[in-house]
Amino acid sequence: MLYYSLFIINFISFIVCYNDKKRAIKHQRRVSERTLLGISFMGGAFGFWVAMYLFRHKTKHVKFVILEPLFVIVWVVLLLAERSFSN
Fold first, then answer.
1. pLDDT in tens, 22-75
2. pLDDT band for position 85 (cuts 50, 70, 90)
3. At residue 2, does pLDDT exceed 90?
4. Tell me, what's the pLDDT at 63?
5. Phi and psi for 79 in degrees, rounded to 5?
6. Count of domains observed in the chain
7. What does the angle CA 54 – CA 66 – CA 19 come to, to the nearest 5 degrees?
8. How far apart are CA 87 and CA 79, in angstroms?
9. I need a labelling partner for 20 at 20 to 30 A (CA). Which of 9, 34, 79, 84 fits?
10. pTM, whole model, 2 decimals?
11. Would the CA dihedral through 65, 43, 55, 27 be positive or negative?
12. 6 to 12, 32, 40, 59, 71: CA distances (angstroms)
């Protein structure tokens, strides 16, 4: 169940990053950085990280360049720990 949930939140994170990039291009109302980082922290880090470089979005913001890979590492460690405890 955990893996399905993480797949869904990463998919959502990817779509939110894509939509925010499109809104930036059109000079429309944007998704807040707090929301973007919050979605990543809650499990969508990998999806956002992929979208970030695929769409070249937030790649010049030091906050995102540092925190996104860090969140990915944290989630990988958590998943590995969960997997080792479940055996």
1. 999 999 999 999 999 999 999 999 999 999 999 999 999 999 999 999 999 999
2. confident
3. no
4. 96
5. -65, -40
6. 1
7. 35
8. 13
9. 79
10. 0.91
11. negative
12. 10, 22, 11, 23, 13
State the residue for tokens 């070249």.
56
Listed in sequence order, the residues at least 6 apart from 41 whose beta carbon sits closer than 8 Å to its beta carbon are 71
- Is a pLDDT exceeding 80 seen at residue 87? no
Q: What is the DSSP string of the chain?
A: -HHHHHHHHHHHHHHHHHHHHHHHHTT-----HHHHHHHIIIIIHHHHHHHHHHTT-STT-HHHHHHHHHHHHHHHHHHHHHHHHH-
Structure tokens at 16: 């939110």
Domain that holds residue 79: 2-86
Q: If you search the block for the tokens 């997997």, which residue do you land on?
A: 83
Q: What is the Rg, in whole angstroms, of the alpha carbon atoms belonging to the chain?
A: 14
